[in-house]
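User: For documentation purposes, I need each entry recorded in a consistent format: the amino acid sequence on its own, followed directly by the corresponding structure tokens. There are two entries in this batch. Please keep commentary to a minimum and don't merge the entries.

Assistant: Recorded as requested. Entry 1:
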Amino acid sequence: YIYPVLDVDFVYGAVASSNSPFCEEAKPVLVTVFPFNTKGSLKDLIYRSRWQDDWGQKYCQRSEGLPLLQVQRLGRQILEALLFLQERGFPPFGHLHSGNVIIQNGVARLTGFENTLLGFSSRIHPMVKSILPATPAVIDTICFGHVLFEMCSGYELYAPKPTARHLEDLQSYPQVIEVLDYIFNNPSEEYPTIASLAILEFFRNIDLREMR
């Protein structure tokens, strides 16, 4: 459930200086190389779009949610990818979003994890920092909640956590509402771990044929 990185390198190119458009200086540009995939990302799957369509157009309209069984299977696969990174001492990921999940042969494969090692800040961090506790690892739990919401609602959650109005759009997914409530409104006021999410009844009975 991890999408491989083939190469990471710095390319130095001449760019215009901020002081003068005629003065050029070499600046490093980070290049990350991945295998080519014609199926696109989880975001493409949610919005029924093609990977080669213009990014500014293909995600601008709300889509229908994915079938429940598909949400369960893809969600469990994403959780397994996060557990894989955790068990190997990888730092909190924080870059999980639907565009960083590649769909290959119907299987979710996590990508973008090199951003953590390269020191890039998460794009979701400014939005959720108000609900982030001191424990860094919970960023992955919060990000997973956002992805789960998007898979069912057909639109991205632009709020730290789902409100009652957001949950009205998930009335046909009562089990997902329970999972989101467990993530964001835990009575203990602590966010559940990725491991505890993976053993929820909603996810644990999914057949992970790729793990055999």
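Entry 2:
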Amino acid sequence: FRLALIQLHVSAVKSDNLQRACGLVREASAKGAKLVALPECFNSPYGTQYFKEYAEKIPGESTQKLSEVAKECSIYLIGGSIPEEDGGKLYNTCTVFGPDGALLAKHRKVHLFDINVPGKIQFKESETLSPGNSFSMFDTPYCRVGLGICYDMRFAEMAQIYGQKGCQLLIYPGAFNMTTGPAHWELLQRGRAVDNQLYVATVSPARDEKASYVAWGHSTVVNPWGEVIAKAGAEETVVYTDIDLKKLAEIRQQIPILSQKRCDLYGVEMKK
């Protein structure tokens, strides 16, 4: 099946972001994509100073538009993420809609991006955001898909749980920056893919050098062999790739690590 990653140029005008995103979703659908994914914070600038201003309830304006375009195009739509307000708390939340427009999954970013690299970048999502507390998966006629958002990708245990639960594709809307992007963006995706013998896709906003937080871009798809099979540059674009589940099955047969794990010695388990 064909997967499309929309590396969207995000502006400060929410309505423009929504209109542009929906237009690119339609374009991707017209080119045969069955699963389409948007980037992290696709409807607003990324930054702790923006989350409260742009936050919405779910359902709300942005998710209603996603539901409508998913139904119109009869696709599975991974709605990147938006700042969500619920019960007085803010979350970084990804919604997924099916071909009938129904909400299939809602993933709140589990691991908050609190880092300090002296002289390069300091950022603390926990100043404004609360963490999610659950894994998020959804089923399609093609395969089961696991969701994470950006910093979630650094935690190998999360990907391992998804693999144990039968996911064959992991999708991470994310916005790595100009420090962590060149260092770890592709490395982490390849690691998650080869460790768990599954496909990993990441969807970044396009790079905006004038933004207060500059995203690395380079939306990417990695196959279960650890090979990069599709990758964007820094500019706004749509990345297409065909996900070959037969290849995934062959790799798992050739190097059967999943059946060779020493569960008598170690294990990773889901607690919730």
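Summary note for entry 2:
The chain has a mean pLDDT of 96.
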